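Quick one, tokens below:
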């Protein structure tokens, strides 16, 4: 992300809606059907264009990207064009042979989803028995093939207490990245919005991960959180007693700029629709079958895309009045789901606010 910019975003490409699992939170509402995907010719043309734009990273995902009939053609062509690629996968299809092929295709990173240290809990969440053991083995196979790997978890009320065990699992398996995602109510995720964590649970997990990052600073593991720029604001709240670290963290977070939707991140759907991010299907900036990605994203962006890019100046409610507006801004998709307005406040904010009281004119006088 630090190499990303509005004219050269990280591109998340959902190759297919096909998937062998039935995850409760799937933002694309994946199934076992192949519906209106880009042709191989269209996909190759898109890769050529993204390479010419020199985007910093292309993330291939789905559905399950390994179920795309064109996955290997795309991966090897991207390698030929010098395009850095990663995949986001459920891990269940990564056999030792597939892992070697991924390495030969030049895949830089393999992120595997694991939502609990308990096979029973994970399998129930993913909708298929045995998904946990296959995901863990896929992670191991990718690691053993020499690929950089990451264990990813989506935070819910069913697993927030399990984060320490999952982090320990990553350490035990020598996985160099641990990434926690926040639940975004999009796709099937809309149906489980009530299973999102409470502010207290969210704060507890963020505190744990910050302390773990400090404690494990000499270990070869990165700890990341995503899908909620509020994490950065809360990190600064926790660092208020350490001015030196606070100043450095604020500088880094300000440079990062909070939510990257529509600016540093772009999403392309299986049928070629361009979205500000993978969690905003309701905003379609254009389609790469009809216009070039560059024309959609840079040369002639839609009014909705421009609004997302400029949203920080027009935020309402708590987000509009927040002192962390420059480095956070909340999640615009959560504002849209819960408030019906992309510019409204993000009600999942975990910052503890004290309402100001006018002591010169108290109530009842």
């Amino acid at each position: 992300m630090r190499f990303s910019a509005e004219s050269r975003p990280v591109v998340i490409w959902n190759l297919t809606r096909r998937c062998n699992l039935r995850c409760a939170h799937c933002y694309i509402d994946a199934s076992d059907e192949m519906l209106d995907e880009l042709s191989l010719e269209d996909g190759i043309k898109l890769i050529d264009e993204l390479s010419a734009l020199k985007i910093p990273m292309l993330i291939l995902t789905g559905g399950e990207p390994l179920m795309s009939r064109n996955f290997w053609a795309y991966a090897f062509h991207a390698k030929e064009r010098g395009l850095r690629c990663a995949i986001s996968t459920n891990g269940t299809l990564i056999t030792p042979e597939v892992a070697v092929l991924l390495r030969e295709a030049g895949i830089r990173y393999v992120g595997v989803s694991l939502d609990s240290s308990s096979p029973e809990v994970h399998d129930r969440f993913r909708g298929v028995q045995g998904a946990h053991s296959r995901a863990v083995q896929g992670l191991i196979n990718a690691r053993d093939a020499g690929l950089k790997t990451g264990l990813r978890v989506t935070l819910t009320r069913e697993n927030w207490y399990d984060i320490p065990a999952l982090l320990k699992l990553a350490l035990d398996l020598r996985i160099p990245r641990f990434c926690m995602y926040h639940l975004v109510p999009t796709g099937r995720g809309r149906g489980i919005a009530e299973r999102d964590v409470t502010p207290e649970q969210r704060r507890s997990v963020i505190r744990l991960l910050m302390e773990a990052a400090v404690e494990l600073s000499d270990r070869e593991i990165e700890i990341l959180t995503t899908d909620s720029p509020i994490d950065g604001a809360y990190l600064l709240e926790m660092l208020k007693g350490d001015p030196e670290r606070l100043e450095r963290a604020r500088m880094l977070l300000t440079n990062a700029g909070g939510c990257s939707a529509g600016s540093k991140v772009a999403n392309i759907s299986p049928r070629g629709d361009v979205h500000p991010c993978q969690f905003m299907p309701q905003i379609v900036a254009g389609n790469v079958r009809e216009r070039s990605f560059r024309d959609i994203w840079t040369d002639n962006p839609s009014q909705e895309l421009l609004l997302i890019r400029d949203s920080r100046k027009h935020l309402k409610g708590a987000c509009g009045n927040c002192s962390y507006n420059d480095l956070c801004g909340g999640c615009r998709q959560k504002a849209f789901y819960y408030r019906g307005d992309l510019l409204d406040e993000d009600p999942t904010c975990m910052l503890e606010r004290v309402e100001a009281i006018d002591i010169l004119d108290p109530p009842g006088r």
